[in-house]
Specification:
By secondary structure, the protein is an alpha/beta fold. The chain has 16 helices and 14 strands. It has an 8-stranded parallel beta barrel with strand order 1-2-3-4-5-7-11-12, surrounded by 4 helices. Strands 6-8 form a two-stranded parallel sheet. Bound molecules: 6-O-phosphono-beta-D-glucopyranose.
Length: 484
Amino acid sequence: MALPDGFRWGGALAANQVEGAWKEGGRGPAVSDVATYKPHTDPTEYAAHHVVTKAGVEKAAADQDDTYYPKRRGIDFYHRYPEDLALFAEMGFTTLRVSISWTRLFPTGEETEPNEEGVAHYEAMFREMRRLGIEPLVTLSHYDPPLALALKHNGWVERRTIELFERFAAVCFARFGAYVKSWITFNEIDGILRHPFTSGAIIPDTIPQDELEQACYTALHHQFVAGASVTRMLRDMVPDARMGCMLTMLTTYPNTCHPDDVAATQLKERMLYLCTDVQAGGAYPRLALRALERRGITIPFRDGDRELLAEHTADFISFSYYMSMTESVRPDAERTPGNTVLGVKNPFLPSSEWGWQIDPVGLRISLISLYDRYGKPLFIVENGLGMRDELTADGHVHDPYRIDYFRAHFEQLIQAVDEGVDLLGYVSWAPIDLVSASTSQMSKRYGFVYVDQDDMGGGTLRRVRKDSFTWYKKVIASNGADLS
Ligand code: BG6
């Protein structure tokens, strides 16, 4: 079993979790700047910790201190990217997934001309990546829409946001298209239904609660239209580039073989695939539309939307995969947190400290399900293990658990390719420790490179190669053949 030549290996980052420098270079505030530090491992606290209110957002926006807002400082990638890229090149990366901060280019999202300092920053970074032989894979929007759009306009609920996004994308393609040939429209586009503020700049309590679900689907539709529109634009402006869509692959099994559990799982899966059905398949599927209609939700189609969605589908499907869960109709079924969800616990799987259930076989199942359904090339653009790592007195970080996690997932990935899946590449989340999206913790570490920074921003920011660094380097050099 071997991976094809040219299989792309690397890692994935997001601007809002690494860059820091939140007030430098003419950058405007993003929704990520008001995300507070909220460590949690207790499933019962999960939902309460993630409530976003208008009062909370305004209070955070007025607070200029960054202590409790770790995404404001990230890991200082904005200044240290040359050093970090060199470490990634040392591991043999052929690809690095990054995102572009919308508010570095358009500080409120509403300007008509871009901030040239922001453009110059990314130009320099992409040039350096190319010099090192690392191909950029770039997400246009990764959990950092302009805060101004949330405070003034209800974000993506307003159709006008499509135009603002098109303006941003046009600058990205015009100025970075020479370096960047692989793009992703929205990180985990389905996330807007679970965390509308982070993905959609929607402040939930500014909308009547009985209209919130409708508002989220309206915003999602606007993102679909925007995604198709910028895909068309990319094809005109950078004809040799490819556009991907991205899904949070929340692989779900029936908790038991009781037909009610199986039916509930089937419905869950149908709604999960709704986004890729539209973005890769080109249309809302009839059954999903019917399920929404029965909940009183209508999709706000305008003339031309259906044609646009049908004509400008994604070239490849990318997805994140961390964990799986189960579905049960029993209200008392024991639950555990996963990636921005609470799922029913699977008795056969171990969990991380954060409750995420570790399931390498689920990666193979996901690859096969997605390829079977769409027949389009796939790209794993996030997968990894968040753990507390320890910097030992002799300056090392021994992380055998991370090596075990990746090895088990790579074995399954290779098997899926052997079974016939067309997989373009694999980029881990994340190659270097960064600020967690959900909890804003530094102590939930994912990297092959340790960053000396604690949750409150203390530390030297020194980078240290973990044991997994050497191991991943060997995996890449052997194109997955040597997992020992
Ligand atoms: C993905 C996001 O859902 O999960 C990333 O795209 C995020 O931004 C990753 O960091 C891991 O989640 P967390 O909450 O552990 O950072």
